Amino acid sequence: MARQTRACVWCRGGPDETMTKRYGALALALVTALALVVPWLSPYRHDAIDLSSIKDPPGATHWMGTDELGRDVATRVLTGTRLSLVIGLLGALVATSIGAGLGALAGYYGGLVDAMLMRLVDLQLSVPLLPILIVASALMRPSVALLVLMVAAFAWMEPARITRGELLRLKEQEFTEAARAIGASDARVIMKYLLPNALGPLSVAATILVGRVIVLESVLSFLGLGVQPPEPSLGNLLYGAQASLATEPWLAIFPGMFIFWIVLSVNLLGDELRQ
Amino acid sequence: MGAYILGRLLRTIPLFLGLSLIIFALIHAAPGGPLTVYLSNPNVTPEDIARLERNLGLDRPLPLQYVSWLTGFMKGDWGYSYVDGRPVLDRILERAPATLELMVSAFVLALFVALLLGSLAALWQGSWLDRLVSSASIVGISIPTFWLGLILQLVFAVELRWLPTAGRMGPVSGGDRIAYLVLPVLTLGLFYAASWIRYIRASLCETLGKNFVRAGRARGLPESGVLIGHALPSALFPLITVLALDFALLFSGAVVTETVFAWPGMGTLLVDSVFRRDYSVLMGILMAGSALIVISNLLADIAYGAADPRVRLVQGRTR
Q: pLDDT digits over A6-42, tens only?
């Protein structure tokens, strides 16, 4: 009984107090550093074919083994990590910008603008996301840039809702009124006074989005629809890995482990930021 | 209540129209159009394609095509597969049970696990169990579903040989059938179990501090009575919406899971049809997926409104 009442004070921190000691930021920094440094320091090129060492298991010379063309998996995985990180960051940035812009319009102006934009959010949230992306990327055979835009086009709703909610709250406060009183235009009030104050919750959503975009990209590439070979991405390295699961399991293990690592670090980071 | 349900029902109509418009536009924006599949076939002449376009109504203006497609869709005429000429609705309906079996099993398992672990973690906040469950849940929401599927296959099917790698057994055999179901269900369910654990734990933690819970304890109710009779119903009530939304999202997860495990459901049909450019089947599956989401949202709203009269009043006014 006594434990119960005391425990409620503990509860304040939210579900993940136990794992939030900046491990997220640390893990993300580490994987980014590896992705930047390893392909550069590695004695192998990510696309260098070596027919004398085909399908070598992980060992001293090739830490993550080699693939069916004798290419070094470690170098390929970390080159792919670089691309996946770029796609994740860009996708989250684009989605958050679209969401912040539309959410700000809805929250600030309210009324018809708000009603219409929120109906659009409802509509987009009802789209079967992955099936639509699978069909769209099969039909359009997107470049990496188009892929980022496509994913962002279906991921801006959460930032939009958050910005709208924040602006609804902030626009009633006195500093907004003061800004208007000194003659600031609507655009200036939104950009200079309101949006900066919404950045906190928005950055949490953006962080989580990085992970979601990376997972979406890797699923599409895993199906052979996203980033196209020979350019390695964490997803397309897994394409075909299933067929050789019994004989060369390392081809399936390592790329996925890095997706998992990145997503876990951004989720931890999101929880840390939330507090 | 009747007016509330009617209002919700009416709101799904523009939503559904919007979704159908997105799907129609997407398919028709494709380079080459719906008949691309025949262009590379040496036995099909340009005249054949022109005749096909006329027969299928593809030479009419797009808005007309949209209207006739949508009215046909509402009447149950979903068109014919370009690949084998069978009705799209038949092809989808024969795959739907496998997908639903997978989704429902994963949903039930995830909910059971989440209720159990989420409640335990909330009850013993700060204990080693809570730390373990909370850590496991953030790991669970971070594992990419398709990779988890590959790893489970590697461990339990390839290395240990406890379970079959992929596929599905027909409705006759009992034990074997479950053996085929285990890995796909674990793959699909883990993410949702983990995310619901976080939700249930947070919600229950908050509720356990409320006055009515303390009042229950003060009346001398046993701890289990307080939990089951008072705290849980109140804490789980907001979960209705999350569950309904997530059930629809399970469809996306099922597509991936089915592909990894060669599960003969709508997901593998979608991926096959994508590679065969079977546009009418693609449109059918996308529409079925959208309908699933719209209907789950509607049911969630109705359940929510039925359970809490305030929702009916407030949402009726502001939204």
A: 334 444 444 444 444 678 888 888 988 888 887 777 7
Q: Which residues of A50-86 are buried (b: 16+ CB within 10 A; e: fewer)?
A: eeeeeebebeeebbbbbbeebbbbbbbbbbbbbbbbe
Rounded CA separation B117/B198 (Å): 10
Q: Look at residues A249, A248, A222, A250 and name the one whose alpha carbon lies nearest to residue A234.
A: A222
Average pLDDT over residues A80-108: 93
Across the A/B interface, how many CB contacts are shorter than 8 Å?
Answer: 153
pLDDT in tens, B81-115: 877 888 889 999 989 998 999 999 999 999 999 99
Give the dihedral sign, CA B138/B141/B144/B149: positive
Nearest-CB residue to A245 (from B150, B198, B297) = B150
Query: Of A153, A147, A34, nearest to A87 (Cα)?
Result: A147
Q: How far apart are CA B99 and CA B247, in angstroms?
A: 12
Contact list in B for residue A241 (CB cut-off 8 A) is 150
Q: What is the mean pLDDT of each run of 10 residues along chain B (319 residues)?
A: 83 88 85 67 77 76 85 85 85 90 93 92 87 90 91 84 72 67 89 91 85 83 80 82 84 91 90 86 91 87 77 55
Q: How far apart are CA A194 and CA A167, in angstroms?
A: 6
Tokens of B302: 């109705």
Q: Is any Cβ of chain A less than 8 angstroms from the Cβ of B154?
A: yes
Contact B203, A11 (CB under 8 A): no
**B288: CB partners within 8 A, 6+ apart:** B92, B96, B266
What is the token pair recorded at A257?
């482990």
Q: Which B residues 11-70 touch A at CB under 8 Å?
A: 14-15, 18-19, 22-23, 26-27, 29-31
- The verdict on A211 touching B (C-beta cutoff 8 Å) is yes
Q: To the nearest whole number, what is the mean pLDDT of chain B? A: 84
Residue B125, classed as helix, strand or coil, is coil
Query: pTM of the predicted model, to two decimals?
Result: 0.85
How close B174 comes to chain A (CA, Å)?
A: 28
Contact A19 B135 (CB under 8 A): yes
Distances from the Cα of A103 to the Cα of A99, A107, A121, A177, angstroms: 6, 6, 10, 20
B-chain residue closest to A222, CA distance: B146
Inter-chain contact B293–A128, Cβ cutoff 8 Å?
A: yes
Classify residue A165 by its DSSP letter.
H
Return the residue of A nearest to B267 by Cα. A131
pLDDT at site B171: 57
Residues 54-73 of A with CB under 8 A from B: none
Q: Are A20 and A271 in contact (CB under 8 A)?
A: yes
| Interface predicted TM-score (ipTM) | 0.85
DSSP code for B275: H
